[in-house]
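Fill in residues.
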């Protein structure tokens, strides 16, 4: 992935990329979960059912029509799942603010408020 190569040139951490057809997918995800990999560039394959401690999430092109509000909520939901890091950050990188982004943010804020209260 081009973004993975660009990040490797800029950062001094262990970076890997993973996608659905990656033969090493399981091993990479396990290494990421255990902290051996500090940054994972991925497609949406990790949007459900994965808990990573101290995990920030960046969604590139979050304004893409491919990402409805439900998908954005799922991707954002990878952050803050662990009890010891409930305030992990989420960033949506966009060119245009969309209704799906607004719905996702409003829903996430509502769910977080309900969880806290």
């Amino acid at each position: 992935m081009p973004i993975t190569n660009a990040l490797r040139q800029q950062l001094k951490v262990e970076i890997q990329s993973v996608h659905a057809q990656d033969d090493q997918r399981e091993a990479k995800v396990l290494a990421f979960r255990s902290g051996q990999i500090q940054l994972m560039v991925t497609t949406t394959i990790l949007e459900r059912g994965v808990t990573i401690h101290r995990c920030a999430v960046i969604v590139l092109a979050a304004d893409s029509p491919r990402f409805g509000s439900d998908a954005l909520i799922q991707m954002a939901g990878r952050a803050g799942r662990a009890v010891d890091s409930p305030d992990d950050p989420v960033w949506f990188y966009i060119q245009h603010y969309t209704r799906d982004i607004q719905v996702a943010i409003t829903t996430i804020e509502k769910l977080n408020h309900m969880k806290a209260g």
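The mean pLDDT is 89.
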